[in-house]
Amino acid sequence: MxxxxxxxxxxxxxxxxxxxxxxxxxxxxxxxDNFFTGRRVNIEPLLESDRFEFVEHDIVNSIDIKxxxxxxxxxxxxPPHYQKSPTYTTKTCVLGVMNMLDLATxxxxxxxxxxxxxxYGDPKVHPQVEGYRGNVNPIGIRSCYDEGKxxxxxxxxxxxxxxxxxxxxxxxxxxxxxNMDPKDGRVxxxxxxxxxxxxxxxxxxxxxxxxxxxxxxxxVEGIIRMxxxxxxxxxxxxxxxxxxxxxxxxxxxxxxxxxTKSKVVNKPLPSDDPTQRKPDxxxxxxxxxxxxxxxxxxxxxxNTIEYFKGYVV
Length: 313
Ligand code: NAD
Ligand code: UDP
Description:
Layout: E1 2-7, H1 12-22, E2 27-33, H2 40-43, E3 52-56, E4 69-72, H3 79-84, H4 86-107, E5 110-116, H5 143-163, E6 166-172, E7 175-176, H6 187-197, E8 201-204, E9 210-211, E10 214-215, H7 216-227, E11 237-239, E12 245-246, H8 247-257, E13 264-267, H9 282-287, H10 297-309
Parallel strand pairs: 1-2, 1-4, 2-3, 4-5, 5-6, 6-11, 7-10, 8-13
Antiparallel strand pairs: 9-12
Helix pairs in contact: 1-7, 4-5, 6-8, 6-10
Residues 78-79, 174, 186-187, 190, 202-204, 209, 211, 247, 270, 273 line the site of uridine-5'-diphosphate (UDP).
């Protein structure tokens, strides 16, 4: 039995990943989380499996368990959450990542670090390729997360060079789908919940900024392929959907899909909000057996809307 640790396992992506890993009968999955943004409801169905266990723990503190593989997701990902406790976010990105790299090194386990498109900041190269080094403000309100994730990548590569730790680094672009927290604050969850409730749909700024939205099942497929990719492919590799939409277009699609009396209102654009984002996924295609997203935005949104209906009565 392969012992797999998923930190951040009670979160949105982590719980979807645990579910997928449990489909493989040879996997024993240990989800670890401190419920900073994660929710027990996401892991409750998984607790029925005798190959699943949950550990409540904060990765800022070290832990000693026997593992063969680590997926390190633990970190708040939504801007309102990471900006509420910025120094704690940095601690999680630095001390937390070091603790997980120490655990991987001690166990001779492979560790995958969940990095982000945010390492490109407000990108001057479009679409973003892995070789682009980014345009990040080191002192802004997003920096705790952006710079935290950048140093997380640095730590992975330094552990690999200094201690021979087996690493894999992925850079995820905006992902959405079931198990998102309705109060998460990211654009897809906000707009769907607002439309289902008939509340105002909030567009920050004029809505001309772009994002690329990946359905969670497509991301999880890429994650699994990356973990089993050839040993000397360490990444970083972009995982995301190259379809690019303005935030205004996203709001129009959601308004087409949900029968609602909601109206669009514009709110101030938060500082350092990236103006454009779209992954170049040719490296993932080449290294991960032709991986590419298969779920169209409207299909993924339809599944997500069905999920969120359970939260709106
Ligand atoms: P999420 O907030 O739903 O999940 C993060 C999980 O980590 C939560 O369950 C939270 O409680 C847990 N956590 C946070 N700090 C912790 C700590 N110190 N110790 C233990 N647990 C801790 O977010 P998500 O969208 O599922 O993101 C998962 C990972 O993927 C994050 O590392 C994030 O940076 C990365 N990522 C996500 C996206 C996306 O669009 N969803 C994009 C880029 C990168
Ligand atoms: N956004 C918005 N309305 C919302 C939430 C977010 O217009 O209710 C915008 C936000 O300013 C950003 C984009 O949507 O330009 C994506 O925001 P999100 O928080 O989902 O993730 P980001 O990519 O900024 O980390």
